[in-house]
Amino acid sequence: MDTSKILIDLRAERDRINQAISVLESLESLGSASLRRTATTTRALAARPRRRMSAAARKRISEAAKKRWAEQKGRTALAAQAVPKKPRGRRTMSAAARKRIAEAQRKRWAARRKAAAKKVMPKRAEKRSSKKPTPKRPRAALSQPITTRTPGSGQ
Question: Which of 67, 92, 62 is nearest to 79 (CA)?
Answer without folding.
Answer: 67
